[in-house]
Amino acid sequence: MRHLYFTMGRLKSWTAAWIRLGFWIILIVGIPELGQALDVSVTPATVNIVPGLNNTAQLRYNGVDLLDPNFTSTSAQGRFITEDGRVLGRVNRGLTMPIVNSRGSVVELLTIPAGVIAEALKLKQSRIGYQRDFLDINNEVESVLVTLPVVPSSAGAFNLVRMTLEFNQPMETAATRPSSGGRITVPRFTKGLRAFATLTYNGGGTLRGQWKVDGQILGIVTRQLNRGLREVTIPSPLNPSFPTYGTGLHKVEFEILDPVPGFDEPIIYYFVTEAYTGAPLGSLKLVEPLERAYVLFSSKQFPRFSWRAAGEGALYRFRLYRLDSAATFDSRAPLAFAYQKPELSAVTKAAHYDLTAFDRDDILLGSPYCWQVQAFKDDVMVGASIFRLVHFTGPAVSSEKIRLDPLNSRGASPQ
């Protein structure tokens, strides 16, 4: 009996110790909330907005759930509300916040429409709320609210409203602002080609961005934008400048890194072309075939192309090009075929050139072609004809061949 009493006494002492330990834990940690365990906060909790335009804000939601450490919390939509609860608009875009080891976060790039701000001001409300409801593991709702005070433009949060990109070509001696549109053509090795990004913004802060050409970073920009100015123009770097040594189309963009813009950055293009330095087009006269002629090409009849002689000792280069379409053909565009491989190219001393049986396999009957002749003396071009349109016909024009031999199947290469 005494042994039993001793055992019970020892159990009571252990129980009392655990109770005392639990009591101190509650005092230090606090009593855990029953039911809803998810707690969500947002940063920033207040964002100043200005009337008359769309405002943007980057919001970060942070979730903590100590009772259920691993699950996924969702928010189906956000809504703009007045202080008395009236709904001004909704954002029908869901957010997903994974909770891992009791913590999680998700970022939202919010656009506050100008119409929502105007409606609030019409209701004499100078403060808007943006509310989202996140669900915990038991589908209980945890609401979080961002306060949006309507302030004058100079006091608004730093955000970008719009951006335009323009080139400085063609150059104007009396102007420093851009004068061109978003697509230009410049000769090879052009010097001083630059672009300008004109940004309209609210508030003030640090802008970070980078100039890129064909996806490659050309220069980094860090600029402090002062409040009250509303607009800034940022030029592309002079060194290194836009590359113009390679012919072809090039893409230019000013990528904004911070703050995150609420719009897609525009893209502009420039095309570098080989400068034409040859003889004037039309200084060498073509004779036959005539413009837009239909020429018979068969095993018994081979077409002759002729032109007027450029004098004694002249050497002629004859070239025949295949066209995608006769509708876009320009007889006085010397650079239109600068990077297209001709179907046929030949050099002759005679003032004519006859196609041969070997050429017949390379000619697609029924398709449009153009031809041109250049005259040389002592390796110097002394004459150049315009380009002339021609069609080839024959006893067996195969529509099957035309369909199976696409026009863009031949590669282009510099000549």
Protein described:
- By secondary structure, the protein is mostly beta strands.
- The chain has 3 domains: about 40-155, Immunoglobulin-like, CATH 2.60.40; about 160-275, Sandwich (Immunoglobulin-like); about 285-405, Sandwich (Immunoglobulin-like).
- Helix content is about 10%, strand content about 40%.
- The protein has helices spanning about 1-30, 115-120, 355-360, 400-405; strands spanning about 40-45, 55-65, 70-75, 80, 85-90, 95-100, 105-110, 125-135, 140-150, 160-165, 185, 195-200, 205-215, 215-225, 230-235, 250-260, 265-275, 285-290, 295, 305, 315-320, 345-350, 350-355, 370-375, 380-385, 390-395.
- It is elongated.
- The N and C termini lie far apart (about 115 Å).
- The model is unreliable at about 1-10, about 170-180 and about 395-415 (pLDDT under 50).
Describe the structure using short key phrases.
415 residues, mainly beta, Immunoglobulin-like, 3 domains, 5-stranded mixed beta sheet, 4 helices, 26 strands, 11% helix, elongated, disordered N terminus, disordered C terminus
